[in-house]
Design goal:
Structural Genomics Hypothetical 15.5 Kd Protein In mrcA-pckA Intergenic Region, Chain A, Pseudouridine synthase, four-stranded antiparallel sheet
Length: 292
């Protein structure tokens, strides 16, 4: 348990802002979980709301030291930031949401903000690259709608084993998500429970070791779509332990999939309100971020 007294600096501030600043290792996701369980007392009264606190308030937080010791041991590069958005370069091996995630890192960093930045899309744990956050609720709603309407292009680098004969094409298939196994399955034909997926690729570079670098785009953002779809057509991503081939991963000394979200292109075709200034803007990462 932690016992804290609100000082003058946090008078009139949100409860989460005070706690995230005062408790080492405390994250916003921890705060939400503890709040849900009513494990926070403000002046001896339990609360399940992110209330305003005032100077002199006594706060009791029932959180274990073991949980707080799960500290974030990573840093994240900010590629671009303004009043509305934040674009990060997510490292491989880190979840977008949850404990010790990119989101908890950002919530800690921006704990004093009136609106905690929220991710507008997802990347797999072991996929690196550009991740877009909204810094206001208005921006979040606009960007979620833009992604839904395919008005923000996402491009990926994928290092794959084998070189396709067709150097550029758009593929249509069907994907089934098995939540119990945390796997997806791909079919050429529609089957019960399968959803349509569209994946495009173009070969950027061919290598003498029977590998190549692809530029990949997806029209349908389904779970593990790129990894599963490329593996299905005989182009497994090197390092992918779930859909790739272990012998190939070992041969190239890769333990995580070589997949990087390297480009975001804002291509608005409908009203974008306060974010209109982003139209036609392009953000890119260099290839070296994949350590190839």
């Amino acid at each position: 348990m932690k016992k804290l007294i609100v000082n003058e600096k946090y008078n009139g501030k949100k409860l989460h802002s005070f706690l995230l600043d005062k408790i080492n290792g405390f994250t916003y996701s921890m705060f939400c979980n503890i709040l849900r369980k009513k494990d926070i007392k403000v002046n001896a009264k339990r609360t399940n709301k992110d209330i305003i606190v005032y100077e002199g308030d006594e706060i009791l937080v029932y959180v274990s030291d073991a949980l707080l010791e799960q500290k974030q041991d990573f840093s994240i590069e900010i590629v671009y930031e303004d009043d509305n958005i934040l674009i990060l370069n997510k490292p491989r091996g880190i979840e977008v949401t949850g404990e010790n995630s990119v989101t908890s890192y950002i919530h800690k960093k921006y704990s004093s903000s009136t609106f905690l930045p929220m991710p507008c899309h997802r990347l797999d744990r072991n996929t690196c690259g550009l991740l877009l956050f909204a810094k206001t609720e208005i921006a979040l709603n606009i960007l979620l709608e833009k992604f839904k309407n395919h008005e923000i292009e996402k491009h990926y680098y994928a290092w794959v084993y084998s070189i396709p004969k067709i150097k550029k094409q758009t593929l249509t298939a069907y994907l089934f998500k098995d939540t119990k196994k945390s796997m997806v399955y791909v079919s050429d034909v529609p089957l019960k429970g399968y959803q349509k997926i569209i994946t495009s690729y173009s070969v950027i570079k061919e290598n003498s070791d029977n590998t190549c670098l692809l530029d990949v785009q997806i029209e349908t953002g389904k779970t593990h779509q790129i990894r599963a779809h490329l593996a299905f057509i005989g182009l497994p991503i090197i390092g992918d332990g779930k859909y790739g081939k272990n012998e190939i991963n070992k041969a190239f000394h890769q333990k995580m999939q070589c997949l990087c979200a390297y480009k975001l292109h804002f291509r608005f075709s409908t009203d974008s309100g306060v974010l209109q200034y982003l139209n036609d803007k392009l953000f890119c990462l260099d290839l070296y971020y994949m350590n190839l």
